[in-house]
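Annex B. Sample input.
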Amino acid sequence: QVQLVESGGGLVQPGGSLRLSCVCSGFTFSTYAMSWYRQVPGKERELVALINSIGDILYSDDVKGRFTISRDNAKNTVFLQMNSLKPEDTAVYYCKARSFIEYWGQGTQVTVSS
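Annex B, continued. Sample output.
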């Protein structure tokens, strides 16, 4: 049974920080590229950050310098540290695992508002 369990979302003020976690099970985590996406209702889901199986990292231009993706293979967990949050970061954030096939988490709501 494949599971991607996300946590860490919530309400935060502009300029604040949140740390999202995605704990995975049911597949060989260390061989999968892990990524974070976000989606606002009515808009396309967009890639936020990716870390592949050897540690190469990519960020969306919108979050570069503010967000940090990392992974702990011993804990089958991928993290997204989000700093200097802006209202436009408000979205449902999803983690995704991909190798030959892909798996998605259920998403966690992040709301940035004063």
